[in-house]
Amino acid sequence: MKKIHSTDKAPAAIGPYSQATSHNGILYCSGQIPLDPESMELVGNTAAEQAEQVMKNLEAVLEEAGADFSRVLKCTIFLADMGDFAAVNEVYGARFESEPPARETVAVKTLPKNVLVEISCIAHL
């Protein structure tokens, strides 16, 4: 049975989606953007600063579901500019120093609220 996961330690959904859902021991985390969960204001001017907030938001969603970064199986990183790849990769990689998950990184034309980075993930519970 599908379970909805939600925490006030990550930004509230800004559309018709859940922060995360799980089914049969797999957690599907919606893409997080660099919003402060309390103010819902954008955090950071650079891709690295924004990636740091995105990872904090993802961590909060994972923790609410009883998981952490060690349980992440796959991530998808969306960048507004592939020129930010190295800066985002450095922030992202700090959370996955050993046994990193599968991943793809894609550049997109525009992200919600015109942010520079969005990251989603799939984890096991």
Record keyword descriptors for this entry:
125 residues, alpha+beta, 60s Ribosomal Protein L30, Chain: A, 6 strands, 29% strand
Structure summary, number of beta strands:
6
Relative helix content: 10-25%
Range of strand content: 25-35%
CATH superfamily: RutC-like
Which CATH architecture?
Answer: 2-Layer Sandwich
- What is the H-and-E element order? EEEHEHEE
Global Rg:
13 Å
Unreliable spans are none
Shape: globular
Number of helices: 2
Question: Average pLDDT across residues?
Answer: 97
SSE inventory with pairings:
Layout: E1 3-5, E2 20-23, E3 26-32, H1 47-64, E4 72-79, H2 85-93, E5 102-107, E6 117-124
Helix pairs in contact: 1-2
Quick structural summary:
The chain is an alpha+beta fold and 125 residues long. The protein contains 2 helices and 6 strands; from the N terminus they run βββαβαββ.
Q: If you had to describe this structure to a student in words, what would you say it looks like?
A:
The chain has a single domain (3-124), classed as 60s Ribosomal Protein L30, Chain: A, CATH 3.30.1330. It has two helices and six strands, in the order E-E-E-H-E-H-E-E. The model has no long low-confidence stretch (mean pLDDT 97). Helix 1 packs parallel to helix 2. The longest helix has 18 residues, at 47-64. 22% of the residues lie in helices and 29% in strands.
